[in-house]
Design brief:
By secondary structure, this protein is α/β, with parallel strands linked by helices. The chain has five helices and seven strands, in the order E-H-E-H-E-H-E-E-E-H-E-H. The protein has a single domain, classed as 3-Layer(aba) Sandwich (Alpha/beta knot), CATH 3.40.1280. It is 31% helix and 17% strand. Helix 1 packs parallel to helix 5. The longest helix has 15 residues. The chain starts with a strand and ends in a 13-residue tail after the last helix.
Length: 158
C-alpha cells in the first residue's frame, strides 16, 4: 500500500500525510512540482518529528512517478468526480492511493489513467474534505481490508 500526492499545494497537508505514512508504515510518493518549497517550515511543523521516520520518494513529474510504479500496482484515485464509494471498493496490498492538488485535483489525463476512482460519501452540498483527512479515512479502510496495519496493534473485533 502507498499514498501518492499529485502536485500538493499546502505544506501542512503534505506534512500531515507524511506523518500518517510514517505512523502506519506506508510509503508516500510526492509528485512534483509542489506549490511550496519542499523544505518549508509548515511541512516540518505538521510532520513534526515524524518526517525522519517517513518513507517517501519525490518524483520530478507525473511521467517519473509512473515510471517508478511497481508493475501491476493499481492506481486508486480519490476524487469528488467518482461514482463508487471507497467503502464499497476491494483494496489490494499493492494499491497506490492517489490524492490530487488541494486547489485543482488532477488533470483529465491523470484521472483517466487511474484503475479506479473513489469518492467519500458526504451530505448534499458539501464539496470536499481536507486532503489529509481523506487520505486518513481511505487508508484506514484499505489497511483494514488488507489486514496491513502495523504489527502490535490490537486485532479488530468481529
Amino acid at each position: 500500500m502507498r499514498l501518492a500526492l499529485y502536485q500538493p499545494d499546502i505544506p501542512q497537508n503534505t506534512g500531515t500525510i507524511l506523518r500518517l505514512g510514517a505512523c502506519f508504515g506506508v510509503p508516500v510518493d510526492i509528485i512534483e512540482p509542489c506549490g511550496f518549497p519542499f523544505s518549508d517550515r509548515g511541512l516540518k511543523r505538521a510532520g513534526m518529528d515524524y518526517l525522519s521516520q517517513a518513507d517517501y520518494a519525490r518524483h520530478a513529474d507525473w511521467a517519473a512517478f509512473r515510471a517508478a510504479q511497481a508493475p501491476g500496482a493499481r492506481l486508486i484515485l480519490l476524487t469528488t468526480r467518482a461514482a463508487e464509494p471507497y467503502c464499497d471498493f476491494r483494496f489490494a496490498p499493492g494499491d497506490t492511493l492517489l490524492l490530487g492538488r488541494e486547489s485543482a485535483g488532477v488533470p483529465e489525463d491523470v484521472h483517466e489513467t487511474a484503475d479506479a476512482r473513489l469518492l467519500i460519501p458526504m451530505r448534499p452540498g458539501a464539496r470536499s474534505l481536507n486532503v489529509a483527512v481523506a487520505a486518513a479515512m481511505v487508508l484506514g479502510e484499505a489497511l483494514r481490508q488488507t489486514e496491513s496495519f502495523p504489527p502490535g496493534l490490537p486485532a479488530s473485533r468481529p
